[in-house]
Here is the input.
Amino acid sequence: MNQIETIISKMTLEEKAALTTGATAWNTTPLAHLGVPRLFVADGPHGVRRVADADVMALEALAATCFPTASCTASSWDAALLSQMGQAIAEEAIALDVDVVLGPGVNMKRSPTCGRNFEYFSEDPLLAGEMAASYINGMQSRGVGTSLKHFAANNQEHRRLTASSELDERTLREIYLPAFEQAVKQAQPWTVMCCYNKVNGVYGSEHHQLLTEILKDEWGFEGLVVSDWGAVHDRVASLRGGLDLEMPGPRPLRSQAVVAAVRAGQLDEALLDESVRRILKIAFKAAETPKGGAPFDAAAHHALARKIAGEGMVLLKNNGLLPLKQPASLAVIGHAAVEAHFQGRGSSQITTTRVDEPLAELKKLAGGASISFCEGYPLDESQRPDMIAEAVAAAQAAEVALLYIALPTYKESEGYDRADLELTAQQVALIQAVTAAQPKSVVILNNGSAITMSAWLNGPAAVLEAWMMGQAGGGAIADVLFGVVNPSGKLAETFPLRLEDTPAYLNFPGELDVVRYGEGLFIGYRYYDARRQPVLFPFGYGLSYTSFAYSNLRLSSPAFHDVDGLTVSVDVTNTGSVTGKEIVQVYVHDQKASLVRPVKELKGFAKVELEPGETKTVSVALDFRAFAFYHTGYGQWISEDGDFDILVGASCADIRCSASAALQSTLNLPSILHRNSTFGDWMSDPRGKAIFGPVYQQIMQPIAAVLGRAEDGEISVETNAYLMSLPLVDVLEFPGLPLEKSPGEIIDNLLKQLAG
Ligand code: GLC
Here is the structure.
């Protein structure tokens, strides 16, 4: 018997129950007499938030590097960079005696107003899944665990502990689960954290379909499922659902309830043992990497944070003013220049090792330029024309004006959602006034998710989306402004023109604790494409200081089997004068499907660095799932024969080249006809039609006689449409049909033949 099974066999019921609930706010129960170590967890995801006292929920944490938050790192589209970040965070976790870091968050950005979007990667499942898998693999390669969160459909902060996300199975499978699925299958996170909310009426902490049937049984998740802090409402029900570890602890009454339930035969002890087994496995796995000891290299991690921030920033507009060419004078305007808005509020808040002040970092690269500063806007909603007047004067007196604008934390944070997508009125008025007075202006933004800009976008010569860029972001902004770094980031989320244009607008944040995902599959660019809705900046968009040309697109085959997939290759050339990186995006369009599908979906991407004039071939492999969709009738992902367009672009709205290929499905799908299938269903199912043929011949003439014929003697279009919409068993009830058996017997025989 292996070590874990031996331990389980020696544990008392009380010890098992105690182990499945936290011993404190941040660690599990050690069992010294059985050699079971404690597991210590700390918040992430963009750094280690290790509280000094495990007994207390939220306190000043120990110093660690605050890396850029997910909306920034996702905009790098650089999986390798996420791996590096994960490894660096692991080094800090080891130094701070932490076994598991609670991240990454991969919830889809259903609405840009979600207050926690700064902590999430994207509106696209593939991009989020790729980033998450790399982060997890990077961190766990160094012996520190992760926690993939929040499973699942936790896409708003409003009433997140009680609201029920109501969504159909296909939407769940194609949009809200794939990032989790990809991360589990490609990286096996040590833990998965359940969500606070309900999913279709069942709490995420008790959701057997999600936690056991899908996560553990279908996807093969081997780690432990931990609750979000305080997400468990009924410990016995959650154990039945597949929730292994409740946090925080201790919860003696709940442990007693678990013991009592086992003793009363209301909870199978084997379920409790399975949770204990998973916890022990992770605790021993964590113990394989000694923690504590040497401090981490703060300087090196700060430098890495600066590099990542520079890769994630997105140049949204540039009429040539950037990169700055050593202007003689600069007017720096905006509070965010002197107080970096580098992270979000809530459980992810890091106590930093240091923070780069944007203005100070700017000065280091500005050469001998004279630099003025003014606050530009207050830290509340008050409107201050005097501050605007001061800023206008400063801008007019300088060669270039730099506006550092941060979305206030009181508008965007964990715990609440935004009411709008606007900057503050003062910030909008400030930008309008300054850029009218000084056309050579740059707006630098710090925000966690999309904002609207139409009121002022025409004003500045350039706009840089710097996100919540981490503690070293001040330096990264200066790097980009002066061209030390050529911006290569691209949006991982759409920036809409208006809040009213957004997919979830009519169903967000729900009422009476019900949130209907009425937009279904159509979130983000999937929605704007389907509606042909103009946007401010599209998914995948981002400028560079150079330019790129795409050519010579080729596919590995003009026809292919779904299981063989398809390789897409394209040549990319740097047609500008400076080295740059391009993110090549591969979208797939299904020309014809039996169910509705988005116009196109991101199914691959690659980032490539090119010297001026250099050309490289970029290849992206597309597998079965790149072409498949989830069919709830079959209860699985399916492919269908047909032609697919492969669209290669610099953004979802900038397709540079395309080609088509014919897919041949190798699936041998069962028929999904049933007793109430319509006449039309039978006729459109090849096997159903073949089997049903003789019966068809028997009934069409008499039916035509009953329903009447059109002038040309055929059954009229409207009559045919009526017929095809009827369940076949009802059609067989028509009077006067020459049938030897009853309709029910005929249908049952047909279904038996189908099953055969
Ligand atoms: C919070 C967050 C979760 C975090 C946990 C511990 O409420 O939802 O992401 O890891 O509790 O702080």
